[in-house]
Amino acid sequence: LLFPVSNLCGRCRPRDTDLLQPSLNFLYWSLHQTTPCSQQRAVAVLLSNVSLLELLQKVLECTWLRSPPSQPAYLSSEDALLCSGWLLVASLLLYQHRYNTEVHQTLSLDLTEVLNAIIFRKKKPVLLLVSIMQFLRAALRQNFSSSLLVIIGQNAAQGAMQPQPPSLQDAALHPLAMWQVFSLVISLQNLLVHKDLLLSQAVVACLETLVEYLYVKNQDVALHVASQPWHRFLLFTLLNGGQKSFLQPEVLRLMTLFLRYQSSNIISQKEISQILREAAEANLAELPEATSHALHLFLCQV
Hints:
67% helix, mainly alpha
């Protein structure tokens, strides 16, 4: 089925949402719900289909070409197709790298447009933001150097927004620029305040991957970003004051991130002790899976 469905997608246009939506979902599902041996063959089939990859290129570009919907909370058929496209490409990036699969057609994306889709997220549904962040995480993990993906660092219009010529820090972080890093971090923090579970998980995971990327590129920049004072205000905002308020998965994962990068001005011994007390008093068997996993990572980091 994978072969004819992928060929069918390649014959479609981005506006053929009724046909493309279930087809792309089937391709995504086929990649994730199979054995490793079959997964490697599935990746090879999809990456050898030039018309499918050209279609995916057009679908992703619709993210910033189409007009925003009038109702931001409503997931239209066009937005649902964009979600499927971003998730499928993120998976292809991951598995192409894992299996070192030959690529017959590359995808070219402007990094500024991808970042702006998150930073200037006006009227974008939560699921679309989550899908774009999944793609961004996959690209960050590979240092934007996948043989499947060609990243354009700056386009002419957005390049004019930079207040100064590229610095040594910008050169070290290429294709990212420092102003983009801080804009993205602030935008992710604002998204966390919404306290939407799916969005919170994606945002924290994106922050983790971003700081890891920065640490490889320039340790000083990574530590500078991780120790910004506004992170502490974010934690105070997330802590709702209720019983066991520290035992929220997004709070625990943020605490773990700050511990990992030694941000002592963000998380102190007092907060660590409070988390340990709440964990000792909690019925661990009744904790949600996401909380248990986040607590495990936090304790290992401590």
